Automatic annotation (TrEMBL):
Residues 8-132 form the NAD(P)-binding domain. This is NAD(P)H-binding protein.
């Protein structure tokens, strides 16, 4: 079995990837800013990163900070991985990073390009948004007297453990380049998702569709962040909510 380093290995996705790889018999190192013995801030790099990569065959790059620094972190990781002789770099990205001009999406696309040009063997998987993120957004909006949601926008949420299983399988294999996108089982409008959340949580809120402006909004109205042809996920949003709130 191989030695695999998972960056962001304590996060929503990374912890599941770590568990699956260990269960499959791989030696797995978890790198995050606060996890001993590989407590490393990828934005800073340095000797801690170099030490974490000694003897590593594959890196699964799950670490990400929407508030910035991902490109610098990727450059540091790539440079250290090349020096350590890592053979395979696996990256998790987002469906639509090349079609929806959100700032965070542009950053994810820039990291993809860095990996493609790194000289390392690489695999990139793009997925739709996790159920967990959609729930977090709806919970935040439900704090208001009404739930304002972007008019005409749908989503295709996917279960994070299904993504973790796919990512772990890719990490155990050879570099595959850009693999097929991975989407949740259903494309749902935001009002539908909100009403499902309200039923599951027992809350009552009016749901209001609000027209927005801008290129990113137009990209999402056009479905640039969706992949209905790759609706390979199995767990629906309602099933996810049942797991969180009970039947």
């Amino acid at each position: 079995m191989t030695t695999i380093l998972v960056t962001g290995g304590t996060g929503t996705l990374g912890r599941h990837v770590t568990e699956l790889l260990r269960a499959d018999g791989h030696e797995v190192r978890v790198l995050s800013r606060h996890t001993v013995p590989y407590a490393v801030d990828l934005r800073e790099g340095g000797t801690g990163l170099d030490a974490a990569l000694v003897g590593v065959d594959t890196v699964v790059h799950c670490a990400s900070r929407p508030r910035g620094g991902d490109e610098r972190a990727a450059r540091n990781l790539i440079a250290a991985a090349r020096q350590a002789g890592v053979g395979h770099l696996v990256y998790i990205s987002i469906v639509g990073v090349d079609r929806v001009p959100l700032g965070y999406y542009r950053t994810k696309l820039a990291v993809e390009r860095l990996i493609e040009e790194s000289g390392l063997g690489w695999t990139i998987l793009r997925t739709t948004q996790f159920h967990d993120l959609v729930l977090k957004l709806l919970e935040a909006v439900a704090k208001l007297p009404v739930m304002p949601l972007p008019a005409g926008v749908s989503d295709q949420p996917i279960e994070v453990t299904e993504v973790a299983a796919r990512l772990a399988g890719l990490a155990a294999g050879a570099p595959a380049g850009r693999v097929a996108d991975m989407g949740g089982p259903e494309v749902r409008t935001f009002p539908e998702l909100a009403r499902a959340y309200l039923r599951a949580s027992g809350r009552r809120r009016p749901v209001v569709s609000v027209p927005l402006a801008g290129k990113a909004y137009r990209g999402m109205r056009a479905g640039g962040h969706l992949t209905p042809a790759n609706a390979v996920g199995k767990v629906t949003f309602e099933e996810f909510l049942t797991g969180r709130f009970g039947a």
